[in-house]
């Protein structure tokens, strides 16, 4: 079976093509193309997973391009890592495709939405299965493109177009690093294939500094794609896109690609401890900062966006401290419950037509199903057993605890506290308490089954995936060993989560602590968080600097370069005018010039030595 | 007392001064007269060098015939130097045509030539000897016969040309 | 015949200066007759050179210098007469005697 795994990305690709060409005639029924394709892909992915679990694996590569005596091959590989991720991606994508049929109903560019969505999934699946950097990068870029297209789906609103652009540009910045890293490795090893490169790395054939540089460059790409600090500024803005997009791209798949990259090239990072440390620190910082900002968000989607950022930081942190399997475990678990959360949020938005949580409240009544599924996801995210989030986050914490990074452990723990806090806050504001606006609550009604069914489906892995933890980590990893210190860490994790929930409930639930007092007390912090640590301002400043630079260069080009060219022309004109005087028609003038020539010639002969 | 040397310097002074007046004098008739003196001076040089016949020819042709023609032309044409050396000093110095440039170039030429000569090995060489008239005549009719004949043709052509030119239109 | 107790270099100096003066005049003067006179000066200078060098260095063929000088004189005479004829012809057309006015070669 795994030999045929290439069908899996081919299906959404076919869906894309079909939707583009035939979709117009089908109207909204074109969605079934995508849904069918994804459904089939999901089945195939699970089948492959089973096969790989049984010991099979596949790799296939064909020569693609010849440059002199350098051959580039294209191919794919399906091993345990790939199979595991494929299964998750296809399932989540399938659910989102189904959900979108209801959510995007009535949209003016319904079919185009599905087309882009299909193309995106193609990219992600290809990325997972690629066996060489070239294909990987192509898929990476395809996803970036689709992200841009989908964020800006409602481009009539200028803000949406800007957000799409911002996303594209910021990730592009990271991509530069990625490309440089790829080139470095290709130049050093003469190959673009993962197998070749990693083999050389593990054999110790590359110098330490080269490996470190390459790893850091690759990580730059991951930082951009996975919205780590400092290239994270695009993710909150990306919420301007339709919610299914946020669920798929910015929760479950694309942003996970960065983590996947680190995972795929893990031996490289292991050989470069400095790079690995960088990964850990950036991950930790991102996790903390994002969580802090999430505590003061009013938009439900933005809260989830920052939450994603924070959890991605967790994954990076896990990777960075050697917890390869833990990081991947969290990746998958997070994908399930974050997608669930986003879709549930989408359902809410669909019902109340607003994203501002301060306008919601008490929605648990009319939106019972949505609300309950949301709560499931929230509990998972907060890290409450028996939900998946607890197990995956716990795995991460254990890995960090087992590592020499003492400080980062406490950071991670504190972040867990914050996570529980802001999720509870979100849930409380949205679903509980007294409704804040009359119109909002009166019009609220539960979403149609096409939207609630996926929610229910996703609750299953949200609840149960955690129990697959040990199996999963063994299946995928073998890169970390964690011992019996699990118990105290677990206790701490649960404690932090519960504490977070209690504090949030106190403020937003019973109103034991007044929100406004809290804000007043912590005003400077509040502002800091609200302004997202001023990163956007930083980004703007950098952009302005860039503009200044380009203005300077432009001025230089105009004045100096053009001036030089014009100056030459002017000089020629001048000489011409002067030369015209030589043909003045006066014989004496001619004679004068002739004499001048003779004298000069004599001078050269006399003074500067004989000629010839 | 090295009489030839004395004679030389005397002649040189006369000739050069006259030449200077030729190129500088505004009044054309004065310039012409000074030219005549210069011609005679050159004849003197020839004599000094032992080319008697040449000196004789020089006086005859140059100081005689050529000067006559020149003076005739001057008288006939009544030319006056329109512009010339009477320019204000500033223009004389700066104007490329009127001023310093020709003078500088000429001076430069002189300097370079003299320097070239001074640095050359020409100074030491086998001494020649003065040539007598008979020798010249003989050479003219043997070695240099062809140029001799060509010269006669040339003179003929010049004569005809001069006549044609001075006749002007309508007077064939 | 007076012996040439004068070094050939002196003759060369005189002829050079004479030539330079002639050059200056040829370039400087506006009167065509004056220009012709300057040219004559140049020719004479050249002649002096011929004779002097032949006298001092031409042991092999002592005739050459003076012979050349004779031909120069011949041609110069022809040239002068023709030149003056042209001048007169030109003057008949235009009243002015300024060489600068004859700029038909301009452009």
What does this structure look like?
The complex is a heterotrimer of chains A (612), B (172) and C (107). Chain A is mainly alpha-helical. Helix content of chain A is 75%, strand content 3%. In chain A, α1 (7-26) runs antiparallel to α2 and α14 (300-320) runs parallel beside α17 (388-402). Mean pLDDT of chain B is 81; it is low at 87-91. Helices cover 72% and strands 0% of the residues of chain C. Chain C is elongated, with a radius of gyration of 18 Å. Chains in contact: A-B, A-C, B-C. Chains A and B meet through α26 of A and α5 of B.
List keywords for this structure.
heterotrimer, A: 612 residues, mainly alpha, two-stranded antiparallel ribbon, 3% strand, globular, C: 107 residues
Radius of gyration of chain C: 18 Å
Shape of chain A: globular
- Share of helical residues of chain C: over 70%
Assembly state (oligomeric):
heterotrimer
Largest sheet of chain A: 2 strands, antiparallel
Kindly report the greatest chain-chain contact and the residue count on each side: B-C, 90 and 79 residues
What gap, in angstroms, lies between the N and C termini of chain A? Answer: 86 Å
Task: Give me the secondary-structure topology.
The complex is a heterotrimer of chains A (612), B (172) and C (107).
Chain A: H1 7-26, H2 31-53, E1 58-67, E2 70-78, H3 80-103, H4 110-129, H5 133-151, H6 158-189, H7 194-202, H8 208-225, H9 234-237, H10 243-252, H11 254-264, H12 266-270, H13 273-294, H14 300-320, H15 324-352, H16 368-382, H17 388-402, H18 406-431, H19 438-443, H20 449-464, H21 469-476, H22 486-509, H23 515-521, H24 523-530, H25 535-582, H26 587-607
Antiparallel strand pairs in A: 1-2
Helix pairs in contact in A: 1-2, 1-4, 2-3, 3-4, 3-10, 3-15, 3-20, 4-5, 5-6, 6-8, 8-11, 8-13, 10-15, 11-14, 11-15, 13-14, 13-18, 14-15, 14-17, 14-18, 15-16, 15-17, 15-20, 15-21, 16-18, 16-20, 17-18, 17-22, 18-22
Chain B: H1 3-24, H2 28-48, H3 52-77, H4 89-94, H5 100-118, H6 133-141, H7 145-167
Chain C: H1 8-28, H2 32-57, H3 64-93
Helix pairs in contact in C: 1-2, 2-3
């Amino acid at each position: 079976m795994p030999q045929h795994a290439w069908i899996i990305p081919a299906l959404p690709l076919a869906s894309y093509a079909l939707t583009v060409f035939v979709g117009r005639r089908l109207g909204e029924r074109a969605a079934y193309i995508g849904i069918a394709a994804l459904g089939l892909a999901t089945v195939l992915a699970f089948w492959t997973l089973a096969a790989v679990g049984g010991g099979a694996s596949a790799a296939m590569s064909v020569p693609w391009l010849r440059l002199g005596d350098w051959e580039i091959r294209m191919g794919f590989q399906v091993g345990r890592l790939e199979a595991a991720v494929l299964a998750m991606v296809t399932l989540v994508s399938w659910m989102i495709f189904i959900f979108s049929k209801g959510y995007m109903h009535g949209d003016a560019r319904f079919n185009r939405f599905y087309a882009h969505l299909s193309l995106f999934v193609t990219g992600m699946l290809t990325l997972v299965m690629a066996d060489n950097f070239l294909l990987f990068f192509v898929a990476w870029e395809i996803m970036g493109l689709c992200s841009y297209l989908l964020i800006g789906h409602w481009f009539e609103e200028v803000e949406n177009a800007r957000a799409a652009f911002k996303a594209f540009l910021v990730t592009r910045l990271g991509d530069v690093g990625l490309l440089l890293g790829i080139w470095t490795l290709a130049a050093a090893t003469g190959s673009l294939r993962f197998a070749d490169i990693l083999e050389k790395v593990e054999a110790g054939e590359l110098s330490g500094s080269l490996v470190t540089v390459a790893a850091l460059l690759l990580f730059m790409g991951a930082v951009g794609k996975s919205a780590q600090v400092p290239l994270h500024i695009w993710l909150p803005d990306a919420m301007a896109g339709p919610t299914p997009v946020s669920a798929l791209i910015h929760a479950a798949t694309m942003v996970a690609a960065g983590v996947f990259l680190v995972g795929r090239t893990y031996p490289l990072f292991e050989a470069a401890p400095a790079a690995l440390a960088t990964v850990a620190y950036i991950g930790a910082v991102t996790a903390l900062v994002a969580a802090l900002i999430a505590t003061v968000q009013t938009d439900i989607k933005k809260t989830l966006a920052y939450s994603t950022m924070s959890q991605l930081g967790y994954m990076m942190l896990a990777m960075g401290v050697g917890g390869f399997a833990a990081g991947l475990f969290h990746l998958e678990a997070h994908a399930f419950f974050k997608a669930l959360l986003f879709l549930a949020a989408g359902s809410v938005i669909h019902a109340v037509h607003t994203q501002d949580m301060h306008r919601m409240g008490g929605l648990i009544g009319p939106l019972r199903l949505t609300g309950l599924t949301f709560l499931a996801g929230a509990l998972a995210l907060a890290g409450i057993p028996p939900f998946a989030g607890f197990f995956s986050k716990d795995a991460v914490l254990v890995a960090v605890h087992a590592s020499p990074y003492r400080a980062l452990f406490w950071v991670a723990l504190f972040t867990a506290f914050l996570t529980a806090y802001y999720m509870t806050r979100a849930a409380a504001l949205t679903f509980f308490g007294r409704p804040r606006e009359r119109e909002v609550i009166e019009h609220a009604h539960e979403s149609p089954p096409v939207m609630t069914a996926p929610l229910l489906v996703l609750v299953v892995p949200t609840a149960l995936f955690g129990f697959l933890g040990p199996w999963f980590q063994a299946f995928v990893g073998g890169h970390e060993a964690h011992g019996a210190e699990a118990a105290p860490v677990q206790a701490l994790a649960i404690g932090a989560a519960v504490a977070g929930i209690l504090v949030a409930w106190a403020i937003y639930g019973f109103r034991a602590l007044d929100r406004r007092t809290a804000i007043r007390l912590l005003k400077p912090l509040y502002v800091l968080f609200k302004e997202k640590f001023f990163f956007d301002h930083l980004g703007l400043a950098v952009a302005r600097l860039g503009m200044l630079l380009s203005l300077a260069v432009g001025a230089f080009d105009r004045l100096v370069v053009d001036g030089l060219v014009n100056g030459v022309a002017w000089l020629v004109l001048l000489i011409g005018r002067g030369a015209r005087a030589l043909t003045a028609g006066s014989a004496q003038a001619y004679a004068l010039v002739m004499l001048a020539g003779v004298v000069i010639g004599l001078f050269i002969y006399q003074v500067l030595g004989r000629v010839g | 007392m090295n009489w030839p040397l004395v004679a030389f310097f005397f002649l040189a002074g006369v000739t050069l001064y006259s030449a200077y007046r030729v190129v500088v004098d505004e009044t054309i008739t004065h310039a012409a007269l000074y030219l005549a003196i210069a011609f005679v001076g050159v004849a003197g040089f020839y004599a000094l060098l032992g080319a008697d016949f040449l000196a004789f020819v020089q006086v005859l042709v140059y100081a005689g015939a050529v000067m006559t023609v020149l003076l005739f032309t001057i008288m006939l044409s009544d030319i006056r130097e329109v512009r010339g050396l009477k320019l204000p000093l500033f223009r004389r110095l700066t104007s490329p045509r009127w001023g310093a440039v020709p003078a500088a170039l000429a001076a430069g030429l002189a300097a370079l030539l003299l320097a070239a000569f001074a640095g050359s090995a020409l100074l030491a060489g086998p001494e020649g000897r003065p040539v007598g008239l008979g020798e010249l005549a003989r050479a003219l009719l043997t070695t240099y016969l062809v140029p001799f004949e060509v010269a006669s043709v040339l003179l003929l052509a010049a004569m005809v040309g001069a006549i044609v030119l001075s006749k002007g239109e309508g007077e064939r | 015949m007076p012996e040439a107790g004068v070094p050939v270099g002196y003759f060369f100096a005189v002829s050079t200066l004479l030539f330079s003066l002639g050059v200056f005049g040829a370039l400087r003067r506006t009167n065509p007759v004056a220009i012709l006179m300057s040219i004559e000066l140049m020719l004479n200078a050249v002649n002096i050179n011929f004779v002097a060098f032949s006298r001092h260095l031409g042991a092999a063929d002592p005739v050459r210098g003076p012979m050349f000088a004779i031909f120069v004189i011949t041609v110069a005479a022809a040239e002068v007469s023709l030149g003056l004829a042209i001048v007169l012809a030109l003057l008949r057309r235009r009243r002015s005697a300024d060489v600068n006015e004859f700029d038909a070669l301009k452009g």
